[in-house]
Specification:
Elements: H1 2-40, H2 50-70, H3 75-96, E1 100-105, E2 108-113, H4 115-148
Antiparallel strand pairs: 1-2
């Protein structure tokens, strides 16, 4: 009976530690976003909806990070890490569309091509996705070794 009580207490302690770590990470990332948004605020004058676009991205990304941290040590951690990488790829494709922006300021037409930035960001996200898949395979391999030994 005492062993069950100590296991339950240990599980609670681990869950509390994960929840605390996820909360601290979330708060730190929110503070970083708040500080950076002060510098990005003037940019929203030129790009309508920029602040909402960045805000939505940050909120979803922070939630995925916190969920992955809460599920650490399980298969769900790897699923949420893969979801983070896929979310970045999908969000970049939806948010930036063609990758070419143009605006007219006075009598001057300004065209910005961000294809290279999008390519680099998507390749880095694919690298993160590959890392998550490899970690998932390693996790399943470790679980299989425990079963068969």
């Amino acid at each position: 009976m005492a062993a069950d009580s100590s296991r339950t207490l240990e599980k609670r302690r681990v869950i509390l530690h994960r929840a605390l770590k996820a909360t601290v990470e979330g708060v730190i990332l929110c503070l970083i976003y708040f500080l950076l948004s002060q510098f990005l605020a003037p940019l929203s004058e030129f790009v309508p909806g920029f602040q909402q676009m960045v805000g939505t991205f940050v909120v979803v990304y922070i939630v995925l990070i916190m969920i992955a941290e809460l599920t650490a040590g399980s298969i769900f951690q790897h699923i949420f890490n893969a979801a983070q990488a896929l979310f970045i790829i999908a969000y970049l494709m939806v948010a930036f569309g063609s990758g070419i922006f143009s605006m007219t300021i006075d009598d001057m037409n300004l065209v910005v091509d961000i294809h290279l930035f999008l390519l680099i960001a998507m390749l880095l996200s694919l690298l993160g996705l590959a890392k998550s898949v490899i970690q998932t395979i390693d996790y399943m391999n470790e679980k299989a070794e425990l079963v068969f030994t």
